[in-house]
Design brief:
The complex is a heterodimer of chains A (about 100) and B (about 170). Chain A is mostly helical and about 100 residues long. Chain A has 3 helices and no strands. Chain B is built from 7 helices and no strands. The chains are: A mainly alpha (about 100), B mainly alpha (about 170).
């Protein structure tokens, strides 16, 4: 069967929910960040698929993908700065060990 | 089945298997490497779709930037060779159930939804077209969001420096 829009949407949906599963099960901040990256990548793939197969007369999906990649890079940099700072004060990056702001 | 179809299925399987391994392995460094392969697989899918510019951006920013940053932070915060603690079985089961239910719901909606493509003349995603359309100030331009993203990147840069700075109390 020739790959088309539905195949790409299947890949991106599966990738999104793999990321959601990782976000639910992981308790380490770095691995949670990896799951967030997977989710962002699935969204990018979705935008590109719609741009390629449905609205090929414009390039808006591609622009959104570029913006998402830029924002994801900024987000990863800030998140890692926070994680390293947290490690400095708590000697751990497990979310269970950093819950004094919870209540 | 043509060669391009086979390549697509290989790329899809490569991406999804590596993504699954990245969220399930208990060795954190291996998780980062599986994430790297997932991102390369997605870049391959972009190449397969003939969106070469976005594939190059994906490789440069994600594979060359974010994964390297993640590996650095693993080296700084994790003991080498130590496995992550095993999660409770109930939590894993419920997470898998929730993810599977969401996947099933979205797949059913996708199968039921008729997608209607526009009949207009296609624009090729060449670098010249991307530059002209994205930075135009006319009808389809994205000049303002582009500037906003540049300010966001500057703010993130300064924010990282401020967060990572040692305070004066630490030094003493």
């Amino acid at each position: 069967m020739e790959p088309g829009l539905y195949h790409l949407l299947f890949i991106s949906t599966t990738l999104f929910f793999i990321g959601v599963y990782g976000l639910f099960t992981r308790r380490n901040l770095v691995t949670m960040l990896m799951s967030v990256e997977l989710i962002l990548n699935s969204v990018n793939l979705n935008f590109i698929a719609f741009n390629k197969y449905l609205w090929y007369d414009r390039l808006d999906g591609l622009f959104f993908t570029i913006f998402i990649i830029a924002i994801a890079a900024a987000e990863a940099a800030v998140a890692i700065a926070i994680i390293i700072n947290l490690y400095r004060s708590h000697k751990s990056i497990d979310v269970e060990d950093a819950e004094e702001m919870k209540y | 089945m043509s060669g391009s179809t086979i390549i697509f299925y290989l790329l899809a399987a490569f991406t999804l298997i590596n993504a699954l391994l990245a969220v399930t392995t208990r060795m954190i460094f291996r998780a980062a490497i599986y994430l790297l392969f997932t991102l390369i697989g997605i870049a391959g899918i972009y190449f397969w779709l003939q969106y070469e510019f976005i594939a190059a951006v994906q490789i440069v920013v994600y594979v060359g930037g974010i994964v390297v940053l993640i590996i650095f932070s693993i080296f700084l915060t994790q003991q080498a060779g130590e496995q992550l603690p095993r999660q409770k079985l109930g939590r894993q089961l419920f997470a898998a159930l929730a993810a599977f239910c969401g996947l099933a719901l979205v797949m059913v909606q996708l199968a039921l939804h008729p997608f209607i493509e526009t009949g207009n003349k296609p624009i090729l995603p060449t670098v010249a077209n991307i530059g002209n359309q994205m930075l135009g100030v006319g009808d389809s331009g994205y000049a303002l969001p582009f500037e906003l993203v540049s300010i966001l990147l500057l703010a993130a840069l300064i924010g990282c420096i401020v967060i990572a700075l040692k305070s004066k109390a630490d030094k003493q």
